[in-house]
């Protein structure tokens, strides 16, 4: 039996979800209102002092006449406010009121340990990436009991993205309890809830499975039926909870860690290494079968893959690089050339077409002729049980190397093994020594994961980007207004309206990939798409805009770390490139702005550099005006307040300080911002009556984040802690400003690494915070027809959310 190495997908719209809450039409079934029934259930859970069940997930998958069944734990015990036990899938979590501990089967030998927050929150439970993924990616999603007990907006999340209003379809008895059967139609099927009519407790839940069935069909053959049902057996708000319910015994030899590290030991060398491969036959798309005998006399690289293999997106390109590196090295070496034949072997069943495989190989970045092994006979002969897999055969038919799964040194390993084969060297010592070396590295990594120092010294890891569960704001509600379906790879967002340059009608300008700009109207309809005329090795990661004295709009685009800034006219025709192409290579551009430095109504370009270049100014035509090397490395550039006679800028230097730069390019002394180390800076007319304000993004350690309000002189006014972590999904301009509320003062929009958006006043007062439930790569806001909209870009979509039911103090 061949098992594909793939990640389980989230098939149920998670009740801690990432979807926006859609408008609902409330409707009852006869005299009974299903929404009121759901709301009563929500209140019962939120008001319950205790809760316990013996929940379990029952999964049934049918293929033809055969049905496989599986039962997994889904148990929760809770004693408000801070005692909790969860046994779900292969995760075990206990909070005893003082300590929070968790272990998951996918990270053996480690126990997550921390002090319990007071009170216990969903943020702490889902704060660890591996723990969160284990809970959320199970067949029934995360344990439904948790948001019901601990979140305020769970019913909204249950009803999010519904195809219609919920319906009560009858009354059924579950374990002797009369329950209302409530159906909610979702995009991938029907969510069914059985709610106890006496206690409002949830007794059973049937999860939508259309997406899960499609995934299983792609992975391992067509399914004819899938059922995922959760039984909350013995669910009770009054059952006694013995103290031992909240005990956690750390397994012998396990390490308590502050973060679960998904470290996996390297796979041992194949027992078939150095032995003759068994006879096998592989079918090409055209021509005669490829057998062990037909490969004699040449080195063969066999890559086994399948349609839907996510790791193949990474491994196939790496193997191709390894083969190419070997061939390049051999072309420079003396001696007879070595013939290497490279094949991509599909283990998909025959119903996957040849055309689909050719397309998939191109998507994966793989190379080589395609062969087919639909029944896995060749894979079995070569000792393969998981995919992706790589086998290298020497010219005499012996197995020189076997690699299973993915890792970041695959290309190097392939080239090294091929070199050994070409030299006539036995590869077994090489492969075994490689395994021993990586096993030692793995053990050292385990020690470091426990906070211990290895012999070579402590290793400092970049913090993870832990996404918080989706959560509605408190003072207003966000409702999805539109989604730009045509934008497939969203990036930086610029919103234009009356506040942003006096636009007669609001519009959104967004990057789609690295070389395309899309313009959208206030309803999210695409009105223009512009392919930027850039050099083939250039990209754009952020946009800036300005209007000159004649009302003509200009655009600036660049990428952090890139070599050039590009100026476009209002029709997105390339107007100038700065610095001129062909000049000296520098360490990269960090930031750029438009600023009318001489007050003549025509904006100039201000460019900040990494390295020693400092700060430079140029005309719209790309002619340098001045440069200031005294600043050294510039991390960010923001506009100074407007004034007569020309406008200066404020820059952030490598040491986290700020320096004002005059319109003539003379920089003032660097100033520390209190005890904060700045990393980014934004400015805009956010103070009352459109007065200028500054907002810094600071952190004294990598991954610690705080927003700092500043005076024009750089003095700190206030600070606002933000979620720890770093933005990993792509480059993001994390601070924007907008007129969301139609008030006399506008608002900052701050995108934190946990997927949250904080809306704040210029004085540091928080208007509200919205948790989107996904990593953000772009943020903006605009006002249209008397309503405010927040625009959010993630790697999967560009959306706008209307502010609704606003209730400010």
Number of DSSP-assigned strands: 47
Shape call: globular
Largest sheet: 13 strands, mixed
The separation of the N and C termini measures 63 Å
Mean pLDDT: 86
Question: Helical residue percent?
Answer: 10-25%
Tally of individual helices: 11
* Residue windows where pLDDT falls under 50 for at least 5 positions: 1-30, 449-462
Radius of gyration, rounded? 30 Å
Report strand %: 35-45%
What structural class results from the helix and strand content?
alpha+beta
Task: Summarize this entry quickly.
With 809 residues, the chain is of the alpha+beta class.
Word description of this protein:
This protein is an alpha+beta fold and 809 residues long. Helix content is 15%, strand content 36%. The strands form nine sheets. Strands 1, 2, 3, 4, 5, 6, 7, 8, 9, 10, 11, 12 and 13 form a 13-stranded mixed sheet that branches. It has a seven-stranded mixed sheet with strand order 15-14-18-17-16-19-20. α7 (312-331) packs parallel to α10 (410-422). The protein is globular and about 85 Å long.
């Amino acid at each position: 039996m061949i098992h594909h190495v793939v990640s389980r997908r989230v098939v149920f719209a998670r009740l801690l979800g990432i979807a926006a809450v859609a408008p609902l039409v409330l409707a009852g079934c006869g005299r009974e209102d299903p929404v009121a029934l759901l709301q009563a259930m929500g209140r019962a859970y939120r008001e319950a002092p205790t809760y316990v069940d013996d929940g379990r997930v029952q999964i049934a998958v049918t293929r033809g006449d055969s049905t496989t069944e599986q039962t997994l734990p889904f148990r929760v015990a809770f004693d408000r406010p801070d005692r909790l036990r969860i046994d779900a899938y292969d995760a075990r979590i206990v909070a005893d009121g003082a300590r929070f501990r968790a272990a998951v089967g996918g990270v053996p030998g480690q126990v997550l340990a921390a002090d319990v927050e007071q009170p216990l929150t969903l943020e702490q439970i889902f704060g660890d990436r591996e723990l969160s993924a284990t809970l959320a990616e199970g067949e029934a999603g995360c344990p439904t009991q948790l948001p019901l007990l601990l979140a305020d907006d769970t019913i909204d999340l249950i009803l999010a993205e519904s195809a219609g209003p919920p319906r009560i379809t009858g009354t059924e008895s579950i374990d002797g309890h009369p329950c209302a059967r409530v159906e909610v139609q979702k995009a991938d099927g029907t969510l069914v809830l059985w709610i106890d009519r006496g206690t409002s407790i949830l007794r059973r839940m049937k999860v939508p499975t259309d997406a899960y069935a499609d995934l299983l069909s792609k992975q391992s053959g067509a399914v004819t039926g899938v059922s995922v049902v959760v039984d909350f057996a013995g669910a009770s708000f009054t059952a006694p909870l013995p103290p031992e319910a909240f005990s956690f015994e750390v397994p012998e030899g396990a390490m308590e860690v502050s973060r679960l590290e998904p470290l996996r030991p390297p796979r041992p060398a194949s027992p078939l290494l150095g032995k003759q491969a068994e006879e096998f036959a592989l079918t090409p798309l055209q021509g005669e079968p490829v057998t062990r005998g037909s490969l004699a006399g040449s080195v063969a690289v066999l890559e086994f893959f399948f349609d839907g293999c996510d790791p193949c997106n990474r491994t196939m390109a790496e193997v191709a690089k390894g083969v190419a590196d070997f061939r390049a090295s051999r072309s420079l070496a003396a001696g007879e050339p070595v013939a290497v034949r490279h094949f991509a072997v599909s283990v998909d069943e025959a119903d996957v077409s040849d055309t689909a495989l050719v397309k998939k190989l191109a998507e994966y970045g793989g190379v080589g002729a395609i062969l087919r092994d639909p029944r896995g006979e060749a894979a079995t002969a070569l000792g393969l049980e998981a995919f992706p897999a790589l086998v290298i055969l020497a010219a005499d038919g012996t197995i020189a190397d076997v690699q299973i799964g993915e890792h970041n040194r695959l290309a190097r390993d392939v080239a090294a093994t091929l070199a050994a084969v070409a030299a006539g060297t036995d590869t077994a010592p090489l492969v075994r020594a490689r395994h021993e070396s990586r096993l030692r590295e793995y053990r050292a990594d385990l020690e470091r994961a426990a906070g211990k120092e290895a012999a070579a010294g402590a290793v400092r890891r970049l913090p993870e980007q832990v996404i918080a569960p989706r959560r509605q704001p408190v003072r207003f509600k966000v409702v999805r207004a539109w989604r730009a379906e045509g934008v497939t790879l969203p990036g930086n967002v610029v919103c234009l309206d009356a506040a942003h340059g006096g636009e007669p009608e609001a519009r959104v300008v967004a990057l789609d990939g690295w070389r395309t700009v899309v313009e959208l109207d206030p309803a999210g309809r695409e009105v223009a798409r512009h392919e930027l005329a850039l050099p083939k090795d250039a990209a754009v990661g952020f946009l800036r805009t300005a209007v000159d004295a004649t009302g003509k709009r200009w655009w600036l685009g660049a990428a952090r770390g890139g070599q050039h800034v590009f100026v476009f006219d209002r029709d997105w025709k390339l107007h100038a490139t700065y610095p001129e192409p062909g000049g000296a290579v520098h360490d990269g551009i960090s930031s750029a702005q438009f600023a009318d430095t001489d007050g003549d109504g025509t904006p100039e370009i201000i460019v900040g550099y990494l390295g020693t270049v400092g700060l430079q100014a140029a005309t719209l035509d790309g002619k340098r005006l001045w440069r200031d090397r005294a600043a050294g490395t510039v991390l960010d550039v923001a506009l100074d307040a407007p004034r007569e006679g020309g406008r200066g800028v404020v820059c952030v230097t490598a040491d986290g300080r700020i320096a004002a730069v005059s319109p003539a390019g003379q920089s003032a002394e660097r100033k520390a911002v209190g005890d904060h180390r700045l990393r980014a800076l934004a400015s805009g007319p956010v103070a009352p009556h459109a007065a200028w304000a500054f907002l810094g993004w600071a952190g004294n350690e990598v991954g610690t984040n705080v927003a700092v309000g500043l005076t024009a002189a750089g003095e700190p006014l206030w600070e606002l802690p933000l979620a720890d972590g770093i933005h990993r999904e792509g480059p993001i301009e994390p601070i924007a400003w907008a007129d969301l509320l139609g008030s006399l003062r506008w608002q900052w929009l701050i995108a934190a690494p946990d997927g949250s958006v904080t809306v704040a006043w210029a004085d540091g007062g928080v208007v509200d915070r919205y948790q989107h439930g996904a990593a953000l790569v772009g943020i903006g806001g605009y006002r249209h027809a008397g309503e405010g909209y927040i625009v959010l870009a993630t790697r999967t979509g560009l959306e706008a959310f209307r502010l609704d039911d606003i209730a400010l103090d």
